[in-house]
Amino acid sequence: MTKNKQKSTWQKVRTTFHDLHLWLGIASGLILFIVCLSGTIYTFSSEIQEVADADKYTVTAPPAAQRQPAEVLVASVLKTVPGGTVQWISIPNDRARSYQISVKKGDDKEAKPVTYFVNPYTSEVLGTPESATSRFFMVVFRLHRWLLLDTEVGRPIVGVATLIFVLIILSGWVIWFPKKIKNWRQGLKVNFKGNWKRINHDLHNSLGLYASFLLMLMALTGLTWSFQWYKTGVNKMLGVYKPEGTPKEEPPKSTLPTDGSATQRLAIADYLKTANGILPYPGDYKITLPSDSVATVAISKNQLGFFAPAASDKLQLDQYTGKPLKTEIFAQKPLNERLASSFKSLHIGSFYGTFSKILYFITCLIATTLPVTGTLIWINKLRKKPSAKTKVITAKPQVA
Question: Name one Pfam family in it (predicted).
Answer without folding.
Answer: PepSY
